Amino acid sequence: MRTFSLLKGMPVYGEEGNMLGEVCDICIRDDGKVSDILLQRKGLIGKKFRLPIDQIFSFGENAIMISDQGDLPTYKEDESEFTMHHAQPIIKKNILSNDGEQLGLLDDVYFLEEVGTIVGYELTDGFFSDIAQGKRVIRTPNPPQIGKDAMVVSVNKLRGGKTNDEVSELPKQGPR
């Protein structure tokens, strides 16, 4: 399981050892799956390319390896998908439960690399709250409904009796 923030900036190599670019974003379909990783190639123009998740051979600790480095398609916005930062961004989007409770703002996503399924959403309540209380991670049984102004998630009550307490809080981040 990975978070987008751990992938961002990670180099992508072909099996021959040629660096193809660095991860700059992910494409998320409305069914809650990561379909592609966006690569930024070095250069003046800095074009972005789509890397389908099924072309990835290995998600390593320091790099992503792909088995076939044929021509990667150039990234074009698609109205049926969302990204973290580029077209239809979801980062810092308001997250609501299907009961209308505001859970926080989206800060990151957790997904299974091999299949691209998003399994958790990391939420923030702001810088000072994150330091004092830590960030929260919620899991949802169904993909969220992503609207223009907010994402609506259905959450199960598991631990602690709170709807947003399915996954324990992340450790508080101290000064670095």
UniProtKB/TrEMBL annotation:
Organism ancestry: Bacteria, Bacillati, Bacillota, Bacilli, Bacillales
Domain of life where this protein originates: Bacteria
Residue ranges occupied by any PRC-barrel domain in the UniProt entry: 4-67, 85-155
Record-given protein name: PRC-barrel domain-containing protein
Signal peptide feature range: none
One Pfam family matching this protein: PRC
